[in-house]
């Protein structure tokens, strides 16, 4: 231990010495430099590099250049003078008029406004192509799959196009940025429906009684994906089963979806990836209010009101209101059970934001949320007001109350834009009172999470690092039948991450150590590497470890609506008698952009492999009347391959095609078997078309998404005579969702859509539905849609 302490001390002193020595000669500074587009960026950065900078980045949105240089070899004066010589005004030098006039028209920035203001002309970020000149009538259109901005200069319109779902070329990991415009392609009433037009995430019903949906990624269940909101832990623990319903689609400002191991800064639970949801915030000087009304033809209605407004130069707020009600008795397969529960939800969030990063360097975000969700399921006619013993009908009741408060505060050190300190905190209280026939399940969870992050550089911005500390406190109190299980998990942790940036590559290496009071000390390393073979060809590699503690009851509530007996085989662990889950994930991907028939196109192919070192196995095969939980003995793995092709096939017409292959298997007590309810082959197709804007600003959008799901292995039901006809494998099936919308103006939008237009429904989704209190009753054997065709209509008003 003494040797380790001395080694660490020596390393820290050596690191400090190197940093101090480097900073004596290396300077990192930021200056205002005028420009418009990607052509400006290339010109400005080349001029800076010509004067001997070791690192340079010009940001169009900030109108700033960030440079690192050796003060013994050059100076900021020389750098800015040379930038002015090539045509770009800056805070020290003004370009000669004759040089400015020779710039391309797209580069002619406005020379008549104060430093510190944002350029009102078009800015190009690193995700976008250089602007092209076109007449307004030819190129300005609604672009349903894209967001556009346009500015007219001397009769010429310069446009920029941002894809509604874009694979980031800048991020080291395989990260998809899903814009709020993508969510307009489908009903998107909550987060579980936000991925209907996304090929990466698989969405399916978890059982035939509660009507809830679950996500799967890289061939594994939702619980292995880190689901965050505002980069804070969100859908985990007791919220696992129903948490996707707690984030309304109209509240979502954007989603970042990362496949494979994510950064260690955000925690240790990510195994297959991370899905982060950003809530709607104000980015404008004007107030904006939007009202959304939605209803489907089966008795579901909802209303959303979102209001964002500035309070002062540095303060803005968001008020998010949501309410829904399902009143109809939907039983499309005529088995006597509701295909989805009836109930109501009230959901309220308030966000307060402070931003003064440019002056004081301080920014802060505060949020508070309250939710009340009540649902009733089971047989048609069940009366929730009567106890189960007072009636013959089978019923399910789920009441959830949830409260959250969080804050994120960041400080950027003055004169050091590369150095910052951030601190985020969140408290969550979650309570569920529920019953499934004669089975009761009550759960309470209170969670406190804190994360402190310091970010800076070593010498120059090519060498960045983050270090920090986190703390997680989970208190659980669960009652299932006659069992009461209480536990407290305390997890202090430390982490460090280093980013090396080269001309064509970026390497991110991180590790964290967490001191879990029940699972022991856990070391979590992760590595991500990106290499730009060409600007249009990007190779990515990733590898890393993740661990989590399983919540046996909360994460498997889809099987509560059955008469299977739950058995946990104790393995000496301290959480339900089980050990924690530990897995390694590795991935490789290739991103290729090209032009086909002079239209923009891209192909992404990736392969990921997940190997479990420890796992809590959910075994449905041992008996049709039992569900077993035990620790893995042997191997468990998931291999996934996906290729996706996005193409702008014609003006305003976009296609997305994808194919996915999964090989997922686990060693059960009965031997190595394919994991049930996981199709080996899947195919996906999405088409989006938008008409040109009319003179009044109106336009139409048309979207369609086709999913083909191959056969899936079904659990062994050989001992269940009522369900013996299910067979070993399901049949392949196809679903089709479509929507048409009309924007009458920028303020009014109406949409009409249909889900599962192929009308495919799983036959006998509930086993022995006529005898729900018998031994063979099971509502958890679901592999396909429960509901048939469902039409919906909605309207958006903006003020």
Automatic annotation (TrEMBL):
Region ranges (Disordered): 127-151
Keyword presence, Metal-binding: no
Pfam families per the UniProt record, alphabetical: TonB_dep_Rec_b-barrel
Residues of the signal peptide: 1-22
Residues of the TonB-dependent receptor-like beta-barrel domain: 335-757
UniProt keywords, alphabetically: Cell outer membrane, Membrane, Receptor, Signal, TonB box, Transmembrane, Transmembrane beta strand, Transport
Coiled-coil residue windows: none
Biological process, per Gene Ontology: siderophore transmembrane transport
GO MF annotation, one: metal ion binding
A GO CC term assigned to this protein in UniProt: cell outer membrane
Membrane topology, record value: Multi-pass membrane protein
Bias (Basic and acidic residues) ranges: 135-151
Primary subcellular site in the record, as a coarse category: membrane
PANTHER family reported for this sequence: HEMOGLOBIN AND HEMOGLOBIN-HAPTOGLOBIN-BINDING PROTEIN 1-RELATED (PTHR30069:SF29), TONB-DEPENDENT OUTER MEMBRANE RECEPTOR (PTHR30069)
Protein name: Outer membrane receptor proteins, mostly Fe transport
Natural source organism: Soonwooa buanensis
């Amino acid at each position: 231990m003494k040797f380790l302490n001395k080694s660490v001390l020596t390393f820290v002193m050596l690191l400090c010495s190197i940093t101090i020595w480097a900073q004596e000669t290396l300077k990192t500074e930021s200056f205002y430099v005028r420009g418009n587009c990607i052509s400006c960026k290339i010109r400005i950065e080349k001029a800076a590099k010509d004067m001997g900078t070791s690192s340079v980045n010009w940001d169009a949105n900030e109108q700033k250049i960030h440079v690192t240089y050796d003060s013994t070899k050059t100076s900021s004066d020389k750098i800015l003078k040379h930038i002015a010589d090539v045509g770009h005004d800056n805070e020290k030098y003004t370009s000669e008029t004759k040089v400015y006039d020779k710039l391309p028209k797209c580069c002619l920035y406005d020379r008549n406004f104060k430093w510190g203001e944002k350029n009102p002309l078009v800015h190009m970020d690193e995700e976008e192509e250089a602007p092209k000149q076109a007449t307004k009538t030819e190129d300005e259109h609604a672009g349903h799959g894209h967001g556009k901005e346009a500015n007219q200069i001397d009769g010429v319109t310069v446009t920029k196009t941002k894809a509604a779902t874009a694979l980031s070329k800048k991020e080291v990991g395989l990260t998809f940025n899903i814009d709020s415009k993508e969510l307009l392609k489908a009903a998107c009433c909550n987060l579980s429906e936000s991925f209907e037009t996304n090929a990466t995430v698989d969405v399916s019903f978890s059982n035939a009684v509660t009507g809830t949906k679950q996500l799967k990624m890289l061939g594994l269940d939702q619980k292995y994906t880190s689901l965050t909101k505002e980069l804070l832990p969100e859908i985990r623990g007791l919220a696992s089963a129903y948490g996707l319903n707690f984030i309304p689609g109209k509240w979502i400002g954007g989603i970042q979806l990362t496949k494979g191991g994510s950064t260690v800064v955000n925690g240790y639970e990510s195994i297959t990836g991370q899905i982060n949801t950003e809530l709607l915030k104000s980015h404008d000087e004007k107030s904006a209010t939007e009202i959304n009304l939605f209803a489907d033809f089966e008795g579901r209605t909802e209303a959303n009101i979102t209001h964002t407004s500035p309070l002062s130069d540095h303060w803005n707020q968001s008020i998010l209101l949501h309410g829904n009600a399902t009143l109809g008795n939907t039983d499309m397969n005529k088995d006597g059970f509701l295909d989805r529960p009836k109930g109501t939800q009230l959901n309220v969030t308030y966000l307060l934001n402070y931003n003064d990063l440019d002056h004081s360097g301080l920014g802060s975000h505060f949020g508070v949320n309250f939710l009340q969700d009540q649902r009733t399921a089971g047989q048609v006619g069940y009366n929730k007001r009567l106890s189960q013993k007072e009636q013959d009908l089978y019923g399910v009741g789920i009441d959830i109350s949830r409260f959250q408060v969080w804050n994120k505060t960041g400080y950027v050190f003055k004169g050091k834009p590369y150095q910052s300190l951030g601190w985020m905190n969140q408290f969550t209280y979650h309570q569920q009172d529920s019953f499934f026939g004669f089975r009761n399940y009550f759960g309470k969870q209170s969670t406190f999470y804190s994360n402190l992050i310091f970010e800076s550089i070593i010498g120059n911005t090519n060498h960045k690092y983050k270090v920090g500390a986190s703390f997680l406190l989970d208190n659980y109190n669960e009652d299932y039948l006659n069992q009461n299980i209480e536990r407290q998990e305390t997890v202090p942790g430390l982490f460090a991450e280093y980013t090396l940036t080269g001309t064509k590559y970026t390497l991110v290496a991180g590790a964290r150590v967490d001191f879990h009071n029940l699972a022991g000390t856990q070391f979590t390393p992760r590595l991500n590497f990106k290499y730009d073979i060409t600007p249009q060809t990007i190779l990515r590699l990733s590898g890393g470890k993740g661990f989590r503690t399983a919540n046996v009851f909360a994460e498997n509530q889809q099987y509560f609506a059955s008469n299977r007996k739950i058995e946990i085989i104790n393995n000496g662990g301290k959480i339900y008698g089980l050990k924690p889950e530990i897995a390694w994930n590795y991935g490789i991907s290739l991103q290729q952009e090209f032009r086909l028939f002079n239209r923009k196109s891209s192909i992404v192919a990736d392969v990921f492999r997940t190997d479990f070192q420890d796992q809590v196995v959910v075994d449905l095969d041992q008996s049709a009347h039992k569900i077993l939980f035990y620790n893995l003995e042997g191997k468990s793995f998931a291999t996934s391959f996906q290729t996706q092709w996005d193409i702008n096939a014609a003006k305003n017409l976009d296609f997305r095609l994808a194919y996915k292959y999964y090989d997922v298997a686990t060693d059960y007590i009965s031997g190595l078997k394919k994991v049930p309810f996981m199709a080996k082959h899947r195919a996906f197709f999405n088409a989006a078309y938008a008409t040109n804007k009319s003179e009044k600003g109106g336009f139409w959008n048309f979207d369609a998404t086709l999913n083909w799901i191959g056969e899936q292995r079904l659990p062994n039901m050989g001992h269940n005579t009522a369900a013996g006809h299910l067979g070993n494998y399901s049949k392949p099936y196809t679903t089709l969702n479509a929507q048409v919308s009309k924007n009458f103006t920028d303020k009014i939008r109406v949409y009409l859509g249909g889900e599962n237009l192929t009308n495919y429904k799983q036959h006998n989704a509930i086993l022995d539905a006529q005898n729900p209190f018998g031994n063979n009753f099971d509502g958890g054997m679901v592999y396909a849609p429960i509901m048939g065709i469902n039409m919906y209509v909605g309207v958006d008003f903006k003020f």
